[in-house]
Amino acid sequence: MMDAVRAVLVNWFELSDIQSVDSIASGLSGAAVFRVTTMHGSTWALKRYPLHTSLSRVDQIHHVMITANENGCDLVPQLKRCGGVDAAADNRSAVDDGQYVWELAQWIAGQPWREPASGIDLLASDRAVVTNLTAGVAIDAESDRQRHEVMKRGASAIALFHRSVRSLGNHTQPPPCVLARQKRLKELSLRMDALLASDLTRIEHPHLRFSLQMAIERFRADWNRLVGPFTGTLATLSHQPVETQIVLGDVHAEHIFFTDSSDDDAGEGRSVVGIIDYDAVRVDAPATDLARWISSFLGQCTDVHLAWHSVLAGYRLESSLDEKQEVLAKGIVHLSAWINLANWASWLLLDNQIFSYDDEHIAQRIDQWIRVIDKLGK
């Protein structure tokens, strides 16, 4: 791997200018990320896109990122143009090595929101004994306050991105996010009987097996009851055209970075320092980004209405949001949680897909969707 990394880095640097290259844990997409530090002390993120990602697609992504930068969104990392000793395509911002496409971008120093250790653990919840309820409530209240501030500031960052790429065009149409969910809901409904009959014993990782078991229990109890209302909701939303534009497409808690908590200014809270991962940028309703963002937090929030207030208020600090977008965002959150949970179960139990990330991380992602479903079902 490191030989391939060094081979592609000559498109940007003299190898003698590179001090170190470190592999960084990446997400579930199949991309690989490396932190590159130069002899001059500058730090860059080298990304290898997932296999089968075309150079033309990465060029589209880069066009969006560059436009956002030029229009004042400094939360989008700046791309480094090629210009090394063996540049495959001088002045490009992406390189195709014949198998993978690579990019080099500004390193974003910060960290995403992490739930406190006192957060809900689906495995532990069956065996945990609460010994100090008063202290637990105090911790939860402070965590909830911090969480809402993060949700608000993250929503503002999303709005800033939306505003910065609006020059790329917008038009009114049935929301693609709704049409995609209509199609996927039908597909999953046809697979549900097979999913319910799946053999969970072949899942070796205990946490992942437990999480999938809980998912299957919820499908068995509620899927048939909910699929009709979900279908009706989507049909209604599909006949209500909204303004669409370039959106992030997959913005969740791990994709917005904040200053470290130790850097807070007099308790003012963490500031957003960057947005990462633009693989899913596309034309859609801005509401779809808000729905994805809030879904990262709803399972831990004590008040769903207050959570929406934080997100919507934060967004409107940077950009307008009409009532149709708000209705759409709220309308797709619950059914999206069910679709995402069914997606994971289907990929793992029916399609036998293998992911680059470890089973524990996948189990935690499934747990997240279960928590959202349980929270919104109340």
TrEMBL record:
InterPro entries: Aminoglycoside_PTrfase (IPR002575), Kinase-like_dom_sf (IPR011009). Signal peptide: none annotated. Residues 24-294 form the Aminoglycoside phosphotransferase domain. It holds the Pfam family APH. It comes from the Bacteria. This is Aminoglycoside phosphotransferase domain-containing protein. It comes from Rhodopirellula maiorica SM1.
